[in-house]
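Bumping my old thread because nobody answered last time. Still need a sequence for this structure:
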C-alpha cells in the first residue's frame, strides 16, 4: 500500500494512466521562475505574438510550456521539417503553437531557420501565438537569416533559473500529493540531496517509488527510498531503520 485507499487488493503493478496537474494554479511559483510565469499569464497579450522561455535542462520550462498548452489548447510541434510545415498551416489559421528545444533543433538542422521564419510570420499575421523553449537565450542561437534574427531579437525572452531547495521540496510534495500518496515528513528531505536537482528527476523518482511500492505491497517511506536509490544499502538500513523513520 502507498497510503491510498483501494476498493480491491492490488496483486500486480499495473501501468495506470496518470496525468499530472497542469493548470496554472498547480504550478509552483518562486523567484527562479516568476518572470516567466508572469509572461505566460499575459497570454495572449505578447509583443510580436510570441514568447521564448529559456533556461538549463531541469529548470521547468517544459512543465510551464505544458501549463500554457493546457490554457491555450496549443498544438505541440516536434521540430521536424514536415511538422513545422504543418505548424505553419495551423499558424495561418491563428492557432496557438508550442515549439520546444528550438536552439538544439536549429543547431542540428540549420535549414529549419527558413521554415521557422515562415511559421513565425504566419502566426503573427493571423493573430496566433507561438511559445518557444530553449536552453539558451535567442541571442545565442547563431541565426543566419537577418529577418529571423531581427524578429526573434524583438520578442520577449524570459529566463528560468534552476530551482532552489525550497521550490524542489514543494514540487516533490506536490507530486506525491498529485498521486494521492501519503508520505512521512522526512522522506522529501532525505531524497532531494540524493537525486538530480531538476523537476524531471523529481517526477521520475516519484513514479519509480510508486511503482516499486505497488510491486512490493509496501508503504512509501525512507526505507523504500534507500532501496530504490541505492539497492546495496538495503541491508545496512535494515539493521537500524526498519521503518525508515531515522534521521
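Sorry it took so long. Here it is:
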Amino acid at each position: 500500500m502507498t497510503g491510498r485507499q483501494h476498493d480491491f487488493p492490488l496483486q500486480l503493478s499495473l501501468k495506470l494512466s496518470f496525468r499530472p496537474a497542469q493548470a496554472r494554479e498547480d504550478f509552483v511559483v518562486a523567484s527562479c521562475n516568476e518572470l516567466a510565469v508572469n509572461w505566460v499569464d499575459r497570454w495572449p497579450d505578447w509583443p510580436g505574438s510570441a514568447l521564448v522561455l529559456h533556461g538549463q535542462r531541469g529548470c521547468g520550462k517544459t512543465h510551464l510550456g505544458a501549463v500554457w498548452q493546457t490554457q491555450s489548447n496549443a498544438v505541440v510541434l516536434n521540430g521536424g521539417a514536415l511538422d513545422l510545415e504543418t505548424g505553419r498551416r495551423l499558424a495561418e489559421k491563428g492557432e496557438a503553437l508550442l515549439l520546444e528545444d528550438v536552439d538544439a533543433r536549429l543547431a542540428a538542422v540549420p535549414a529549419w531557420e527558413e521554415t521557422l521564419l515562415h511559421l513565425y510570420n504566419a502566426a503573427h499575421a493571423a493573430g496566433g501565438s507561438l511559445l518557444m523553449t530553449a536552453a539558451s537565450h535567442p541571442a545565442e542561437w547563431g541565426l543566419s537569416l537577418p529577418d529571423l534574427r531581427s524578429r526573434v531579437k524583438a520578442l520577449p525572452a524570459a529566463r528560468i533559473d534552476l530551482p532552489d531547495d525550497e521550490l524542489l521540496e514543494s514540487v516533490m510534495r506536490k507530486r506525491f500529493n498529485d498521486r494521492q500518496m501519503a508520505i512521512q515528513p522526512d522522506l522529501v528531505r532525505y531524497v532531494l540531496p540524493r537525486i538530480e536537482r531538476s523537476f524531471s528527476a523529481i517526477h521520475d523518482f516519484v513514479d519509480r517509488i510508486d511503482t516499486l511500492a505497488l510491486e512490493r505491497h509496501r508503504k512509501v517511506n525512507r526505507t523504500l527510498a534507500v532501496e530504490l536509490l541505492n539497492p546495496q544499502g538495503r541491508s545496512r538500513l535494515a539493521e537500524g531503520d526498519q521503518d525508515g523513520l531515522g534521521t
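The chain has a mean pLDDT of 82. Let me know if any region looks off to you.
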